[in-house]
Amino acid sequence: MKKIAVVILNWNGVELLRQFLPSVLQFSTEATIYVIDNASTDVSVSVLKSEFPTVQIIENEGNFGFAKGYNEGLKTIKEPYLALVNSDIEVTKNWLQPILNQFEKDTLTAIIQSKILDFKNKSYFEYAGAAGGFIDKYGYPYCRGRIFDKIEEDKGQYDSSINIFWASGACFFIRNQVFQELQGFDEGFFAHQEEIDLCWRAHHMGYEIKFCYQSVVYHVGGATLNNESPRKTYLNFRNSLYMLTKNLPKNTLVPILFSRLLLDGIAAFRFLTQGKFKHLIAILRAHFHFYSNFKDYYSKRNSQNIKKYYTISSIVNRFFIQKQQTYTKLF
Fold it and tell me: Residue 304: which pLDDT band, with cuts at 50, 70 and 90?
């Protein structure tokens, strides 16, 4: 058995498979390649069987989204290391070996992210992960190389392998044993920010998360839900509140959630002034759903809360008020 499994989750993405699987097969000789299919209604499965016969196919019974889709599909995969890779990722030569080296030399490293660049503009970072992720005190995520909608050109400024708070689900490496120990992604999230929640839970257990700049991939981004989708706005705002409820230290839970209510209200007003009424409604729906499910998520709280989960108090203040719009300007 090989040490690493490259696992791609697919739903009705036959053209993405045809476009991007060849690079995965070409540059992943160290790995076994799996595609988990979320009950596609297109010809994905038949194309995989006819055009990519070396790929192992795992067929889920329904479209379970990102979280449950991976949880179900990974139950039968036994390789010690997992590479969860979006179907719109182009990988590069030697992308796996630096990851394997990091896992082998440091047993505390549980999760690793590659450098994620933009497939359409390859000198720039890509929105979903860039050079490694962090959150501020209020749970708003940002990355080295991307803060809100400000995306930097890659000039080697983040070519250092450092500890990060979260790794992007677009190209997410994790020890199989840790994934099982954490009981996988929270299926209530469906999609978006479930990887941040899982990373936070890994921190609770004393594990480390790394960014590995020597491993480079290119991500199309927005192939499932683009950044202008109200559905994505809804999932991001709702799931962020779920994540905070599960993971915040007990003494900060109420004040942080109250602050988020105010900050999300400001975001909703901004959408209103921009005429983006569907996004405004998406934030309102996210909050209503959060309140109705608060009890369930509070019951999932981890008793081993880490105290310091952020280095920036408010990325909203730094970005919009102080105009510190790149990661290097934050410190």
Answer: confident
Q: Give dist(CA 27, CA 329) in Å, integer.
A: 36
**Identity (one letter) of the amino acid at 125?**
F
Mean pLDDT of the chain: 95
Residue 279 has pLDDT above 60, yes or no: yes
User: For residue 242, what are its two tokens?
Assistant: 């779920």
pLDDT exceeds 80 at position 137 = yes
Rounded Cα distance between 84 and 174, Å, is 8
Closest CA to 7 of 84, 96, 97, 111: 84
Whole-number pLDDT of residue 185 = 98
Q: Is the pLDDT of residue 305 over 90?
A: no
- Confidence at 153, pLDDT banded by 50, 70, 90: very high
SS3 (DSSP) at 33: strand
Task: Please give the DSSP secondary-structure letter assigned to residue 317.
Answer: I
State the Rg of the chain over Cα: 19
For residues 319 and 204, give the distance between their C-alpha atoms in angstroms, rounded to a whole number: 28
**Crossing angle (nearest 10°) for helices 253-273 and 277-298:** 170
CA-nearest of 197, 219, 67, 190 to 128 is 219
- What is the tally of helices (H) and strands (E) in the chain? 10, 13
- 99: closest CA among 218, 211, 176, 9? 211
* CA 80/CA 84 separation, integer angstroms: 13
Which band of pLDDT confidence, cut at 50, 70 and 90, is reported for residue 225?
low
Catalogue the E-assigned strands of the chain.
4-10, 31-37, 56-59, 81-85, 89-91, 109-118, 121-125, 133-135, 141-143, 146-147, 150-151, 171-175, 208-219
Q: Do 52 and 28 touch, CB atoms closer than 8 A?
A: no
Q: Give pTM, 2 decimals.
A: 0.96
